[in-house]
Structure formats: C-alpha cells, structure tokens
Amino acid sequence: MLGGGMPELPTEIQTKEICSLRMDFLVLFLFYLALVLIGGVMICICSKTHRLKGLVRGGAQIFSYIIPECLQRAMLRLLHYLFHTRNHTFIILHLTLQGMVYAEYTWEIFGYCRALELSLYSLSLPYLLLIVNLFFFTLSCVTDPGTITKANELLFLQVYEFDEVMFPKNMKCSTCGLRKPARSKHCSVCNRCVHRFDHHCVWVNNCIGAWNTRYFLIYLLTLTASAATVATVTTMFLVRLVMVSDLNLETYVDDLGHFQVIDTVFLVQYLFLTFPRIVFMLGFVLILSFLLGGYLCFALYLAATNQTTNEWYRGNRARCQHCPGTVRPTSAEPWVYRNSHSHGLWSNLREIFLPAAVHYERKKK
After folding, report:
1. How many CB atoms neighbour CB 243 within 10 A?
2. Per-residue buried b or exposed e for 96-108, using 16+ beta carbons within 10 Å of the residue's own CB
3. What is the CA 283 to chain-centroid distance, rounded?
4. Distance between CA 202 and CA 90 in Å, rounded?
5. Are 238 and 282 in contact (CB under 8 A)?
6. What pLDDT tens digit does each residue of the chain (365 aa) get?
7. CA 42, 43, 46 angle in degrees (round to 5)?
8. Spatial distance between the Cα atoms of 100 and 98, rounded to a whole number of angstroms
9. Paired residues of 201 in beta bridges
10. What is each CA distance from 3 to 109, 148, 247, 340, in whole angstroms?
11. Half-sphere exposure of residue 203: CA atoms within 13 angstroms, side-chain side
12. How far is 349 from 92, CA to CA, in rounded Å?
C-alpha cells in the first residue's frame, strides 16, 4: 500500500492474470467512439445537402411503418417538449453531469494526488473554475437577452443599420406585431423578439442575445477550461502512478509463453480495469474538452467578426445557393450577404462586452 490509501500496485502475477483479456474491448470501444465522432462530423458537414435530407426523409418514412403510431406521437411530444418549449431539463442534466464529474474528482483524484504530493494549486484550480463557471452560467440563464417591447422598440431600431438583404427595413414580426430592428429575430421557443439574436440555448434555457452574449462566452470559456483542467490533473495522476509503481517496466506472458514488456494499450487497459471510474471520467472529460473547445473557437470567431450564429447560418445558406449542384428556382434573384457590422476586433469585442455603452453612443448619433 502507498500512503494516503492508495490501492495496491500490480505485480507480475497480477499482470499475468489479466493478459488473457488483452485489448479486445478497448479496441472495440475506440472503434465505436471513432465511428460515432466521424458520423457526427459527416452529418454536420452534409446536413445542408438535398441528398442527405432525402435520405433522412426516406429513413423517417421507413421507421413510420415499423414504429407504432402511438409511440411516434409520444416521441414527437417528447422532442417538442425538450427542444421547442422552455423547460429546465437540460439545466438539470448539465448540473447533474457536472456534479458527477466533480464528485468523482473530489472522492478519488484529489485524495490520490495529495498522497502523490501533487501541487495543491493545480488540484484546486478546477474548483475555482467551477465557481466562476456556475456564476456566469446563472447569469446566462436569468439575464434578459434583449427582449424587444413597445417601450424599447424605437431604441433598438436605431442601433444597427438595415442591410436590405438579411434585414430589410420596415419589417414587422408576424407574431409580435412589432417592427423588427436589424439583427433581431423572433424566438419560437421563448415566444419573443430578441435584439441581436444569436441562438436559443437549451442548456441555459434562455436565448442568447445582445445583453447576455458576454456572460455566455465566459460561461463557455470557463466550462471548457474546467473540463480540460480536470482531464489534465487526472492524466497527471495516472502518469505519476505508473512512474511510481514502475508499471511500465512490468512484463506479462503472451499466448505463446513469451515474456513481453507492457505496451501503452495494455497499460491503458490495465488502468481501466484497476480504476474504471477514473479512466471513464477521463475519457468523458477529454471528449467534452474537444467538443467544447471546437464550439468555443467557433463562438470566438463569431465574436471577433461581429456575427451571430443566426447571421452566420443564414449567410452560409445563402452562399450554398451558389454552389454547383444546388437546386434553386430559375426566377430567384441572387441573394448576397456581406457582414457590414464588423468594425475591427476591439470594437467588435467592445460591442459584446459593453453593449449598453455602444447602444447609448449610437442613440446620441
């Protein structure tokens, strides 16, 4: 036993006992994981093609014949409730997953790392990031994103210029009956028009708009940083454990009766069998770090270029209309969108992080 209640380290006999397991399940797990990730990326890339949409419609028709109608209605009601109504389901799921990760980190990683004399600062950093993250998560949830009403309609109409392409002048919202300021959009989930509408986020159960984009960006940044920090500390613990125990120098007997030095894949497999919860958590936060990191880069790109997700999507869809093979009406006029709101990196960031000052200055003009 090591100090601090560290579990017993493997001996050659213990290593021999698990050699028959080899790496089959680990290889299959990585294969399935890679398949899911590649499939997700391909769906994201091809989601706007007519061929894929046709395949999706065809698949839906096939399933409609297989799945009972009552089950189809129940699934549609569930999907409508989850993604088309305001509810706290994803907030609860978000906090549950975060709580499970930090409970495992506190219960096992923190204690083991203290026994291995890792830096207390590095061990405490995830907790500091968690506090900051929960603070900005709450602000993203409760802050008004910029709801357009009769009282502030005239103010918002003066903030951004109409480009007469994506945002034509003198347009009225068919639901609210209010004049639509440039860069605004009616959110069907919240049932309100939102100024500088970015998107509706189910994880915070709120729209992301002019007044809470800054909070959402910091929330996303700290969430990515906390996941990456937990993954880093957990990896440090496993590496330190292997080095202290000289596990990388152990040997095992293969199927032919020959002694073999433990390789990396076999080592990962053994760690998974010895610390299943820790290694599973590490895999989860690693995948989460990559996914959140990719989305964070996209959000920072939009912030740096003064675009919203809604504008990027609509502009990208318009650009795809000019792609070869895209079917469009012959009488349709060319629809070209150019981002006219970008005024340099610092001005763009200032508009997001100090929106009230920008609105006041433009109102004076």
Report:
1. 12
2. eebeebbebbeeb
3. 16
4. 6
5. yes
6. 444 455 554 444 344 444 444 445 556 566 656 666 666 555 555 544 555 556 656 666 776 677 788 887 888 898 889 888 999 999 999 999 999 999 999 998 988 888 887 888 889 999 999 999 999 999 999 999 999 999 999 989 988 988 888 889 889 999 989 999 999 999 999 999 999 999 999 999 999 999 999 999 999 999 999 999 999 999 999 888 888 887 767 666 666 766 777 777 778 777 888 888 898 899 899 999 999 999 999 999 999 999 999 999 888 765 555 555 444 544 455 555 677 888 899 999 999 998 876 665 655 55
7. 80
8. 5
9. 206
10. 14, 61, 17, 63
11. 15
12. 31
Tokens linked to 149: 């009403």
Q: Are 223 and 292 in contact (CB under 8 A)?
A: yes
Distance CA 282, CA 237 (A): 11
CB 151 within 8 A of CB 187: no
Q: Are 304 and 349 in contact (CB under 8 A)?
A: yes
In the chain, how long is the greatest CA-to-CA distance? Answer: 85
CA dist list (Å): 218 to 28, 300, 352: 37, 10, 11
Enter the tokens of residue 32: 């399935």
Domain locations along the chain? 90-144+216-318+341-364
CA distance linking residue 218 with residue 256, whole number of Å? 56
Single-letter amino acid code for the residue at 145:
P
Amino acid at 276: P
Give the H/E segment covering residue 130. helix 120-142
* 12 CB-near residues (< 8 Å, 6+ apart): 250, 251, 252
Q: How far apart are CA 281 and CA 284, in angstroms?
A: 5
Tell me how far CA of residue 237 lies from CA of 130, 176, 277, 314, in angstroms: 20, 56, 14, 46
What amino acid occupies position 248?
Answer: N
φ/ψ (deg, to 5) at 252 = -145, 165
- 3-class DSSP state of 148: coil
pTM of the entire predicted model: 0.82
Marked catalytic residue, from 201, 207, 320, 323: 201
* Amino acid residing at 148: I
201 is catalytic: yes
